[in-house]
Structure formats: C-alpha cells, structure tokens
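Write out the 3D structure for:
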Amino acid sequence: MHDDNSIINTTQSWIDQFIIGRNICPFAKHIPTGKIKLEVDNATELLHILEKISLSFEELKLNSEIETTLIIYPNADKDFLVFLDQFYACDQLLEDLQLRDTFQLVSFHPAFCFDNADTDDAANYTNRSPFPMIHILRESSVTKAVDTHPDVNSIPERNMAYLRNKPSSYWEGMAY
C-alpha cells in the first residue's frame, strides 16, 4: 500500500520523465509548475468517484490558478475495462452537467489498451500510468494548444511509432 505522498511523487515522476521527458504530450511542458493539481482519491465505488469528479469540475471553474487536474485512483479496479466503464460514467457526467465546452477528460491506467490493439502493443504506453487516473483538462487550454501546434494530428502517430520502436517489455515500468 502506498501513502498519498508516494503516489503523488510517483505520478509526478511519470509526468516529468515520461510524458514531458519523452515528449509524449508536447503541451505538458508548457504548463507552469504548480498549475497541475495531483490529487489522490482512494475511492473504488462509482458514486464516490462521480462526486469527486463533480467537485473537481467546480474547483476548476472557481480557481483559474489550477490549469489541469489529475485525480489518481490507487485502489481502482486493476481490470482496465472495469475502470474504463467508470471513466465513461464520468464522461457522461460531464455531458449531463453541460460542461462539455468547458472540460475534457482523459483516462490513464497501468493496463490501458487501445480499442482493437493487442495488450502487448507498445503504443498502449501513451496512456499507461503508474496508477489509474482521470485527467481533467480545460477545453480552452486544449483549443489554444491545438491552434498553436503546427501539426497536432501527427502527435498520436509519432507517439505510436516512437513507442513501437522498442518492444512493450522495454517500456514496462520505465514509463513510471
């Protein structure tokens, strides 16, 4: 069992070394230190997860000092598909609260697997993380980043090619 500080430190290291360090997300390096909120939620029940996500939406609406939030679920189901169902419920909440134009959600999970991909496809590491988590992004920030990037559509293909250059076993554990 990890304590919250250890979970946050591991996640921050994953962001610094893998997401930013390997340029998986070219936009992440432009977010100033202190503007990314990392929060641990030990919830496992969907109702609690939805309540936390809703509170995080409110906090982001009220606090412009926070650019983006990563809610880390260390006790979430180890089965990626079970977690994905919970993520889809959070995404539906975003829709139900009419916040689709305000926020965007992205899921990360240690066993993340793209639809129709083999579980050992190294490209899955673009969304594999040390712990299950949900990333809340401001839609305005995403729009600004996309509008200022010379070729945003090339990012996923670049990541897949980069990660597939080594076998999945190479990335296992290295990504975090």
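Residues 4-20 form the longest helix (17 residues).
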